[in-house]
């Protein structure tokens, strides 16, 4: 594994009123401690992650239609006003290419990013980060009929590839970081997703694990990305409607997922982010010793809203099993706007402690 002094990673969401405000906030809060910076994901189609995609990308698409709530019941939780359950319109061809927001938003934000680099406000070798949701994130929340998922998943993957193509026409590959958010896959494998959403099938964990770590699933998420692009996976256990959606007694499942994803990718993944809980200690972090992800950097989400001292306690436990790792918040900051300045300060403090510990 490669360990760097620039050891902070951001999952993506950073609440602010503009891209420039996000970059100014990061410049003040973490300086040169992060390899890549996201733009905050504050545009309408990306706001609230999958919520914006459902409302502004999927629901208006001619190939889909809204399912009557009398046919598919709403979940008791994890629902928000305006989100629809969808199905494929009979006879329609499902093609989402050109509909996704990621390329145009990236191109717009990159203009701000390059300007602020020239002004000296962003470290010169910082990469531009684009975070995109894995297909299961989008499809499992929005599509009410499981038998339609394979078609919708393939359409999302093809549309992502088209977004990559458009992004790479403007942003040089060696300045780009693409992060795949891998969340509801874990929640489905762990069993929480089927309990939360009434249309999600409760299937054997190993069957789901094999499906969502297979080359057939992982490969299309990475197709079209040249080796110069930094590729990451944000392995999450879910933050809405509460954290964690999928409780974890140990980090074993994220570790096994990272190992399998890396194998399926042909060792193309440069980093993995894995979550921690507030009470995580030695028992939780012990499976880190089983990582087989090669040179990929591991970022641990050990900043969990409870202060720098608790963050360092978790880091000390994790170092017993994996001496070198980077640090992160447990997810994005979209749900933590009011306390975010303090969280960023804790993250910076924890990152410096970890760098000192690695340096000896």
Structural key phrases:
eight-stranded parallel beta sheet; 360 residues; two-stranded antiparallel sheet; 10 strands; TIM Barrel; single chain; alpha/beta; globular
Largest beta-sheet characterization: 8 strands, parallel
SS field, number of helical segments: 13
Poorly predicted runs: none
Coarse structural class: alpha/beta
The rounded Rg comes to 19 Å
Give me the CATH architecture, please: Alpha-Beta Barrel
CATH top-level class? Alpha Beta
Q: Mean of the pLDDT scores?
A: 94
Number of domains: 1
Shape: globular
Distance between the termini: 17 Å
Strand order of the main beta sheet, please?
1-10-9-8-7-6-5-2
Order of helices and strands: EHEHEEHEHHEHHHHEHEHEHEH
Write the CATH fold name.
TIM Barrel
Count the E strands: 10
β-strand amount: 5-15%
Percent helix, as a range, is 25-40%
List the helices and strands and how they pair.
Blueprint: E1 8-9, H1 19-29, E2 36-37, H2 50-58, E3 64-66, E4 86-88, H3 102-118, E5 127-133, H4 135-142, H5 149-168, E6 176-182, H6 184-190, H7 192-196, H8 205-212, H9 215-222, E7 230-235, H10 252-265, E8 271-275, H11 282-285, E9 297-303, H12 308-319, E10 326-329, H13 340-359
Parallel strand pairs: 1-10, 2-5, 5-6, 6-7, 7-8, 8-9, 9-10
Antiparallel strand pairs: 3-4
